[in-house]
Amino acid sequence: MEVEIGIRNCARPVSFSTNDSKDSVSAAIKEALDKGTSTDLVDDKGRRIIVPGSAIGYAIVGSETQRPVGFGSLESSNN
Fold first, then answer.
1. Which of 41, 42, 67, 79 shows a CA-CA span of 20 to 30 A to 13?
2. How many domains does the chain have?
3. Is 27 part of a structural domain of the chain?
């Protein structure tokens, strides 16, 4: 799942993909915003992303659906 976090006073957002669920990522970000603490997330490569809640400008938590990879159709054209 793709996650994008906009940081205040920073031109580029932090973008990464994670294996965590949409609900757990959203809950971690919401808790950081509500309590003024840091959010601590792990991407799909095992790297930790720690962002202070007071620095979060916005967050986009993407879809959990997997997209197909490749250019061809999976259907057979042999009739």
1. 67
2. 1
3. yes
